[in-house]
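Handoff note, outgoing to incoming analyst
You'll be picking up this chain. Sequence as last confirmed:
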Amino acid sequence: METDEELETGYGSGVPPGDNLCNDYVQGLAASFAALGRARGDRVEEDEVVLAADSGTGSLFGNAVVLRQPVAPAAWPALADRLHAVYAGRPGGSFLLFSAWPTPDLSGAGFGRVGHPPLMFRPAGPVAHEPVEGLELVEVADAPTALDWERTLVHGYPEPGLQPYVPGCFLPERALAAPGWRHWVAYLDGEPVATSSAYVAPHHGRVDLISTVEAARGRGVGRAVTVAATLAAPELPAMLISSDLGRNVYDRLGYLPLCRFSLWEGHRRP
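Most recent structure output, in case you need it:
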């Protein structure tokens, strides 16, 4: 029945974990960027509306904004100005805004369109083993494996904002202490060729940072590193935002599309 009372929307940082998949992913996304950013020594600002992390690098993935709840159209101009103020006047490249909900056209507010990638979900369960000859998966646990992971991501994703590659630009050894995070690097015939990462949230594992160098693609390597991250917490379902390159792999692993995110690139102001 109709009511004048304020009703629970199921979105926001105050909603109990497990209420719905979309909100679980959004809050886990914000928590993961905050944990990694603080472990690296980045600047992190957050409240109930947004999480903003600034690594000061040229990488969009190091300068991330997560919208934690829907924002009314009339409130967007002020929010856009607020976000620009967070990043303005500091070194680094653009920042990447993640919204699980449709947004107004922000192209006139200092943002550029990135896309609407799908949020995907896979129930907990085993994955069939498909061995790849010469492949070894190693969990990142020290400075040498962190450097191999980082260098492979920069060139395999690829991430032009971190090129030319400088050691420690994204995953310095101190970042391995970030709570909830795990990372893997794949070696093919002894050479690092692929990466994956996972952030374990209360009700799901969040798969991220999947990359494979071009020379190793089409050989099952990308699938193997994705499986490692998918099973980071095998008792939990896994979720991810799909890339165009990875969509076929995720489909074959049983991931299902739930909805589409809105991604915008915020241009850092002087």
